[in-house]
Amino acid sequence: MEKVRSTFSQSALVPKRAALWLAFLAPFFYLSYGGANWLASQRAHVPNVAFAWESAIPFLGWTIIPYWSINLFYALCLFINTTPRDVDMLARRYLTIQIIAVACFIAFPLEATFVRPATSGLPGFMFAVLGGFDKPFNQAPSLHIALLVVIWDHLRGRLPRKVRLLWHLWCFLIGASVLTTWQHHVIDIPTGMLLGLFAVWLFPRHAGSPLAAFAMGDDPKSRRLGIYYLCGAVAFLGLAALCTPLSPAALLLLWPAVALAIVAVGYFGAGPRIFQKRVDGRATLASRWLLAPYRLGAFINIRLWTWRMPESVVIADGVHLGRFPRRHEANRFATVIDITGELQRPSGTLARWCSFPTLDLTALDKIQTLAAANLLEAVRQQGPVLVCCALGFQRSAGVIVRWLLISRRCDDAAEALRLIERAGWRVHLPVESLHAVTEGLR
């Protein structure tokens, strides 16, 4: 009863919190957006980034209706929440998008080159109102698309199942309308999607921000890896800047730049929370898409290192050690104990999946390693178990060593490592990881 009363009390606070946020966000939107437009209009020359074939995109005047509808959903979504925390989460997503987009508009203004034909009726009226405050600037990233990503994500899990398809179709119309109303060029769409995904990732629905507990670490190796990834992000950013005058497609290089920058932040102190991976091995939608370039690189790295190796080897008593499995490989086991943060459980996997997210090439966490080893001992009696990380050389090998020691199958780490090597598997456990898996057992 107390829980029901608390939930009702929280819901009652939503309209007031939503109204307060809207009272701030609406004027902030128009002032900042209009200010960026005005600053761009003061420049002697504003560049244009577009593909030559965009002239073939048809102008469909009626699509101004779905285009404008995002304004309604922008406000409405603030009120479609169950707790004030949900309202705050959505408002912070809006605010993040607005700040980053306007900063881009001011720093790198772009101009749309379309000349719209005359329209009449309701579309004509709506275009006239739009033209009253919106100028042909503020192009990439598309603020419209970025907000659409957030609004689509907000409602897709709250609407009844029967109307979700209609919602997806309407969102598709809104997205397409930025082109068919000749408001944006094509490259503005993926850059807007990237910004929207970043906002959704930064303020996830069911957890705190992945950066909320950021604390600069004191591990030299983690800092060094963070610097490497940051350099990679800067390199992609530089390539995007250099190559965009040659082709608008170069702006797509911002995607791996953002992904590598986020991974760098993880190594600097945010930890594996950046991957937003749950215990069942699945990651949030925003994390899957935002970090896809990094995950693709990790997948390629796995194949390059292990293509001549077996998928896994038997260590003892139905316990296997191996690389990160594909679906058909995982389905051979009753349980998969996954020690990666960066890789997601393959879709359609039937095995029980237990994830202990960690960053690659960093020292093992002794508490997490012990928990994984204890779980391994508990579940091995229910069928074959695979313990895996990306390559199977370090993180998962550390868990296996810990399990061999706590189960008294080996007397020390050296014996455990020899057992793994006799099984036909390479192990590369650094000194700090060996210390973590043996601490408390001497």
Automatic annotation (TrEMBL):
SUPFAM superfamilies referenced in this protein's UniProt entry, alphabetically: (Phosphotyrosine protein) phosphatases II
Chain ranges passing through the membrane: 20-39, 59-82, 94-116, 136-153, 165-182, 227-247, 253-270
Keywords: Membrane, Transmembrane, Transmembrane helix
Keyword Membrane: yes
Signal peptide: none
Matches recorded under CDD domains: PAP2_Aur1_like
Protein name: Membrane-associated phospholipid phosphatase
Organism: Rhizobium pisi
